[in-house]
Amino acid sequence: MAFFDKIKNAFHRTSEKISISLAGKKVDDNFVQEIEEALIMADLGVETAAELAKKISSRKFPRETTEFEVKQFLVSEICSLLKPYESRFFGENLLHNPEIILVIGVNGNGKTTTVAKIAHIFKTSGYKPLLVAADTFRAAAIDQLKYWSEKISTNIYIGKEGADVAGVVYDALKQASANANDLVLIDTAGRMQNRCDLLDELEKIKRVIKKLDESAPHKVVLVLDGLTGQSVHGQVDVFLRHIGVDGLIVTKLDGTAKGGAIVPLVLRYNLPVLAIGIGESLEDLRPFDAYLYTSALLGMPVGE
Ligand SMILES: Nc1nc2c(ncn2[C@@H]2O[C@H](COP(=O)(O)OP(=O)(O)O)[C@@H](O)[C@H]2O)c(=O)[nH]1
Ligand SMILES: [Mg+2]
Q1: Topology given in CATH for the domain delimited by 99-288
Q2: How far apart are CA 234 and CA 143, in angstroms?
């Protein structure tokens, strides 16, 4: 399973840490404490690590229990924590015509790439997406989206550099109905150094969308960088409070040893993980599968 191997490789430093702490030890208090520390190191968060450690203690494993058995238990425990946050985003038929998806997040988190990947997936299943370049602040951002639209042969609406983004989005939605696009993906700016401006701009975009379709945006997707440490919570706080978020996409899980960060994140914010990014190419956006993710995190094999 190529996908599984990819995240498993990325997580190998995490799973190694967890292995080292288990290797050759007996299941006693000291051992449980070591597991707890390893889980914290893997970015699962202090509270979740403590809860999992408690579960191992109360399970009362016999002393001769193997590392593999304890990990199997951990996989099933973490998996059941994450299962409610799996999403059918990619398996679903889109419910609106057009379905309007607003993609937000801090610069560099992978928004533009993710917009292209989402478009690619839906185009492959027969939809006709329109990409909207609503990051008019940088010419390079527009060019980047244009590059992707050419690569996947999809429609694109480009706002002029420096144009008012609410106007761009308004025109883009008009264009979508003229083109009969059934999916509109709006790629936004993410410059956090101008936080107030950015949030104002995103609010304005939402308002203008609502003028044309009261039920839209149908999904506000927050793109997070899997390499970001604990400050990722601050990002979620800001966007959740000011704009509202329907689901998360966590990118760059191919390059992080700290893959556990998804666990405390979803538990705290109660937001579904719509997809995960595991590389820079179009095929590298995958549904979030709690079992595959957890198994990769702990370096465990998966059953078919
Ligand atoms: N390794 C890896 N790189 C990614 C992933 N997603 C995005 N990137 C890269 O991250 C960088 C920033 O992405 P971009 O889409 O421009 O972010 P934006 O500023 O939020 O629009 C680019 O070099 C992307 O190729 C991913 O899942 N894995
Ligand atoms: Mg961008």
Answers
A1: Rossmann fold (3.40.50)
A2: 30
